[in-house]
Design a protein that fits this description.
The complex is a heterotrimer of chains A (about 220), B (about 350) and C (about 210). With about 220 residues, chain A is mainly alpha-helical. Chain A has a single domain, classed as MetI-like (MetI-like fold, Orthogonal Bundle), CATH 1.10.3720. The mean pLDDT of chain A is about 90. Chain B contains 16 helices and 13 strands. In chain B, the strands form 3 sheets. Chain B has a 6-stranded mixed sheet, with helices on both faces. A 4-stranded antiparallel sheet of chain B has the order 2-1-4-5. In chain B, strand 4 and strand 5 form a beta hairpin. The radius of gyration of chain B is 23 Å and the shape is globular. Chain C is built from 9 helices and no strands. In chain C, helix 7 runs antiparallel to helix 9 and helix 8 packs antiparallel against helix 9. Chain C starts with a helix and ends with a helix. The model of chain C has no long low-confidence stretch (mean pLDDT about 90). Classes of the chains: A mainly alpha (about 220), B alpha/beta (about 350), C mainly alpha (about 210). Chains in contact: A-B, A-C. Chains A and B meet through helix 6 and helix 7 of A and helix 2, strand 6 and helix 4 of B.
């Protein structure tokens, strides 16, 4: 390894266009995978909460799925979907579904039985029970799942470079290949900052999303 | 009117069948408050939950004003029946006013109309709306949450209200207060109420009729005084418990023990209403202090003197009732000391 | 599965590497993290900064963290171990704090009443009672580390990630499946074993509490 660790800033400014393109790819595949993940995992969780005998197999499947290394999921897409954006998106979406599904399931199941009972007794239809009671009350836990999935996928998207999916991982890969610290860090430092900032922003946003009545410090 | 006919509910768990409710027959008349009481597992809650179809009967049927509840749309049925549960079951993410206006919202009322109704009901249950309407359930005490629960059940003005141990989770002093409030409210709104509790004092205080259940069956169904005077089974006496003597005093009115007016006695001092129980009369006497003479006057419905009770006779009536119920020793003396001015 | 049958020695060798990297990392993380957790319960003002910084550190993508460490620790297993220790600290510190905080006040009162010193209180009461919760943290950290360690193959640390990278390079699912299956099996058995250990510990604690 050679070079001054802070030289990566010079590298980024000299290759601004390339850097922004890779950053764009990174954000695009992350956000899209989380969005699709929500669209699949949330309805799935609602169904599994309603159909009791699906609960055990589905949560076990999700838990075992969590132990499969992300790198392996990416690698296994290669023979099926080839290289590039699509296999990356596919792998990241699978990864996003797991935490969002588990959190949504646990969140909805965790809604106070007495509250659900009272709401049913008042004559809420199934969809009203879901929209007016269960989802709002589970929203803090569901949101935490989305937060986990987003930050985690920013990380996994760096691995996409190995299957030609682009993103900031490209720079890390180049840096490793060329044994050039400035290129390595031009990918690594921004992606680390991106993950941290996303975590902090989503953490703040959680307070906006959580219904006021559920915030403990209300007085 | 609600009618339960040969109602049974069998649960199956771990291959064993348990009859939670076993051939229950009940009629709850319009504007009456019936208390279902019994130990846990006696089937009282299950019986109640079959009325708004939160549970499905295994056999038998329930009719409301002659219509079988199974033929009604379940969602509409529930919206037409108020429902109060322990700790209120309030929705924590809605404000107090939004909670109260929940059923009107489900019924599609306009926002302004809902808000007015919520305020009206909060005032009825003793929560000034200007202070409470926009708070969240977590900002209220247990007793206040319970009041909101009652207000919510009344919001759409349902003819029927089901209450499942509504005051079970609050401290004894608050509970007493809520019970008195419910009596006042019921006096105003005259709903048909089915009230589940395991608190015998609560049952006697609130019930027009008490339905005592055990192991899924009705052991006795009658007015409170009947359970005291004519228990249908030893179980009834056992369940009502050791302080039944005191309860007997609470259910004997002054007019029952007053003698016809003796001509020689002048009408002086306070005239106590004939509707007072012996316990209440005793407290009243302690409060006003002994009048001249050997007793006090009892009034009729409009307050005219209609009978006379001597202190000696009053003490005897109390002592006899306590003795008859097997209450002896210190507690009898305590009651006497409390009841009879010296 | 064919790869497993055809190359048993290589798979075994890489599995051993993998276990060694994860094992060393978790031991070091526990040796650092548990004392930090104890210090946090004594110096409460440290809780915010320490938990926040380890939480933020946890969000840094593993490939990026490896890359950032390379200028200091070079290529190879040592960089992988440093990174895995950093990741594991969060769960271990957090659970140590939660475990000690969860000790029933009555137990503490009784121990103080018997005249225990602060050190005796920690060693004889707080740590034993907090152990199941601390162990749960170790368990979380271990399962996560087994997954993250696969990526360490990129920086020449060896381990099961090598099989996955081989597969990606050759566009051959066989080694990928082999690496995945072994890594997942490793994670699941570590999870199971540590969970069992937790149950046994809780039971023993329950029994000694019952006897005492």
């Amino acid at each position: 390894m050679r070079g001054d660790p802070l030289e990566f800033i010079t590298y980024i400014s000299e290759h601004e266009e390339q850097f922004l393109r890779l950053l764009g790819q990174h954000l695009q595949v992350t956000l899209l995978s989380v969005a699709i993940g929500i669209a699949i995992a949330l309805p799935l969780a609602v169904v599994v909460v309603r159909v009791d005998r699906l609960a055990k197999p589905m949560t076990t499947l999700a838990n075992v799925g969590q132990t499969i290394p992300s790198l392996a999921i990416l690698g296994l897409m290669l023979p099926i979907l080839g290289i590039g954006f699509l296999p990356t998106l596919f792998a990241l979406t699978i990864r996003a579904i797991l935490p969002i599904f588990l959190n949504a399931y646990v969140g909805i199941r965790g809604v106070d039985r007495a509250v659900v009972d009272a709401a049913r007794g008042m004559g809420t239809s199934n969809s009203q029970l879901l929209l007016l009671v269960e989802l709002p009350l589970a929203s803090p836990v569901i949101f935490a799942g989305i937060q986990t999935a987003t930050v985690q996928n920013i990380g996994i998207a760096t691995l996409a470079a190995y299957i030609g999916g682009g993103g900031l991982g490209d720079l890390i890969l180049q840096g490793l290949a060329m044994l050039d610290t400035s290129v390595l860090l031009a990918g690594a430092v921004p992606v680390a900052l991106l993950a941290m900032v996303t975590e902090i922003i989503l953490g703040r946003l959680r307070r906006v999303v959580v219904p006021r009545g559920l915030q403990i410090d209300i007085k | 009117m609600i009618a339960l006919e040969h109602l049974s509910k069998v649960f199956t768990s771990h291959g064993q069948t348990v009859a939670a409710v076993d051939d229950v027959n009940l009629e709850v008349g319009e504007g009456e408050l019936h208390v279902l009481i019994g130990p846990s597992g006696s089937g009282k809650t299950t019986t109640m939950r079959m009325i708004n179809r939160l549970e499905t009967p295994t056999s038998g049927r329930i009719t409301i004003d002659g219509r079988d509840v199974r033929t009604l749309d379940v969602v509409e049925l529930r919206r037409s029946i108020g429902y109060v549960i322990q700790q209120g079951g309030l929705l924590p993410h809605f404000t107090v006013a939004e909670n109260v206006a929940m059923v009107p919202r489900l019924l599609g009322w306009k926002r302004q109309q809902r808000r007015e109704r919520a305020h009206e009901l909060l005032a009825l249950v003793g929560l000034p709306p200007e202070r409470f309407a926009d708070r969240y359930p977590r900002q209220l005490s247990g007793g206040q949450q319970q009041r909101v629960g009652v207000a919510r059940a009344l919001a759409a003005d349902p003819p029927i209200v089901l209450m499942d141990e509504p005051f079970g989770a609050v401290d004894p002093i608050t509970r007493k207060q809520l019970q008195r409030e419910l009596r006042r409210i019921q006096g105003e709104v005259k709903k048909t109420i089915v009230f589940v509790t395991h608190d015998i004092a609560e049952a006697f205080l609130l019930g027009d009729r008490i339905v005592l259940m055990s192991e899924g069956r009705v052991v006795q169904n009658g007015p409170p005084a009947d359970l005291l005077r004519r228990p249908a089974a030893p179980y009834v006496t056992a369940f009502i418990g050791e302080d039944r003597g005191l309860r007997a005093l609470a259910y004997t009115s002054l007019s029952e023990v007053a003698m016809a007016v003796p001509n020689a006695v002048p009408v002086t001092g306070a005239i106590l209403p004939g509707t007072l129980s012996l316990v209440e009369a005793g407290r009243e006497l302690v409060a006003v202090g002994p009048a001249n003479g050997d007793g006090f006057w009892v009034g009729d419905e409009v307050g005219n003197p209609s009978g006379y009770v001597t202190y000696r006779q009053f003490a005897t009536e109390i002592a006899e009732r306590l003795a008859a119920e097997g209450v002896v020793g210190e507690s009898a003396e305590a009651v006497m000391a409390d009841a009879v001015p010296r | 599965m064919r790869y497993l049958v055809e190359h048993p020695e290589r798979v075994l060798q890489l599995t051993a590497d993998h276990v060694r990297i994860v094992g060393i990392s978790i031991l070091v993380a526990a040796a650092i993290g548990i004392p930090i957790g104890i210090v946090v319960t004594r110096l409460r003002w440290l809780e915010g900064p320490i938990l926040t910084s380890s939480g933020v550190l946890y969000t840094v993508p593993s490939l990026a963290l490896f890359a950032i460490l390379i200028p200091y620790t070079g290529l190879g297993a040592s960089t992988a171990i440093v990174a895995l220790v950093l990741y594991s600290l969060l769960a271990i510190v957090r659970n140590t704090v939660a475990g000690i905080d969860g000790v029933p006040p009555a137990a503490l009162d009784a121990a103080r009443g018997m005249g225990m010193t602060g050190r005796q209180l920690l060693v004889l009461v707080e740590l034993p009672l907090a152990l199941p919760v601390i162990l749960a943290g170790v368990r979380l950290a271990t399962v996560a580390a087994i997954g993250i360690a696969t990526i360490a193959a990129v920086i020449g640390a060896g381990g099961l990630g090598r099989l996955i990278f081989d597969g990606i390079r050759l566009i051959d699912p066989e080694p990928i499946v082999a690496g995945t299956v072994v890594a997942s099996a490793l994670a699941l058995s570590a999870d199971w074993a540590l969970a069992r250990l937790g149950i046994v510990l809780r039971r023993d604690l329950g029994r000694s509490a019952g006897e005492g």
